[in-house]
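Summary for the steering committee. The consortium agreed at its last meeting that each partner would contribute one worked example illustrating the joint modelling workflow. Our contribution is presented below. We chose a case with several input lines so that the handling of multiple components could be demonstrated. No manual editing was applied between input and output; the record is shown as generated.
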Amino acid sequence: MEITSKLLGKAVDEVSQLPGIGKRTALRLVLHLLRQPKARTEKLAEALTSLRSGICRCRECHNISDSERCEICASPKRDRSLICVVEDIRDIMAIESTGHYRGLYHVLGGKISPMEGIGPQDLQIASLVERVRDGGVRELILALSATMEGDTTNFYLYKQLEGVEVELSTIARGIPVGDDLEYADEVTLGRSILQRIPFEGSFKGQDR
Amino acid sequence: MEITSKLLGKAVDEVSQLPGIGKRTALRLVLHLLRQPKARTEKLAEALTSLRSGICRCRECHNISDSERCEICASPKRDRSLICVVEDIRDIMAIESTGHYRGLYHVLGGKISPMEGIGPQDLQIASLVERVRDGGVRELILALSATMEGDTTNFYLYKQLEGVEVELSTIARGIPVGDDLEYADEVTLGRSILQRIPFEGSFKGQDR
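What follows is the complete predicted structure of the assembly.
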């Protein structure tokens, strides 16, 4: 594709630097904007600029937030004795949309991965340990990915919190609701048998 | 997905109004921007804004252009007696990247489609007829889609140009280079037989 317009070329270049967007898609998106009223593009550009300049991290849980303290941390309705540890703010959104959790969060910003050169010092681990040490936290729910890196991070957190009085739990691993047993992988199926729960408990699913 | 940050929510809303981009993808793109240096977002926003404010349509061929007259129309190397009629500026880019065309273009801005409510007056047909009437044009190559709407538009143009001295041609329809005959659809295969060309001609493919 030859783009003769410099303005168009530059816009396509910038858009195609977004992840998963190639030159062709970028061109399609930019041409779409050109067909729309000018205000459309201005609103988009304005939303991105003000997002980037206005947004900050919650000083308590590191969730992204419009103010110093995020809505969840600031809410009086939340159970402050419960902290769910997640990798990314997208995990917060996912858990929030279940409607089954009423505690606080702590965003690590990733997981320990020697392969990618991410060590404990690159994550919000020290501030988590501090939060727990400050007291008032009854339980820490580790909700990291069910991968080797997730397990490594879980274990590192466990070691860091040795001697601190707090209950540690991890979210349940098992067969997804609605899935056929025959399509489940062996590891998941194996864990779901080893970590089976009393039959009566399976009905409850009490909100925390 | 619950987005508690208003700034983030607004940015995701704006991005997800782009075609083919849903809420989830928009969120992924916006979070990517948040992880990048601030200048990245500013450059993207700036490129989009200056594109929208700076770009215009070439007054001759209606190609998008940074100036009143596009690079192709302004080039002294182009054969001004040849005009290729296309629907969209993307078709110009596609034809330009073949490197086999040295004439000018005319962008209609679509094709006649009663179903979508697009009539001849919505397209740059009058200005094309004017360009041809002004003289100096030897041949008009119709390079519209091989659809019913494309054929309708071709026929309309043909009727509009009755009595005007200009050669009309359409781009060749046939089996794509590299394709197996058995996978070609019947209409294309039928046309490729009816509109067969002399064997010697098939080697030439002379640039126009």
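DSSP finds nine helices and six strands in chain B. Strands of chain B lie at 56-57, 64-65, 79-86, 103-107, 139-142, 167-170.
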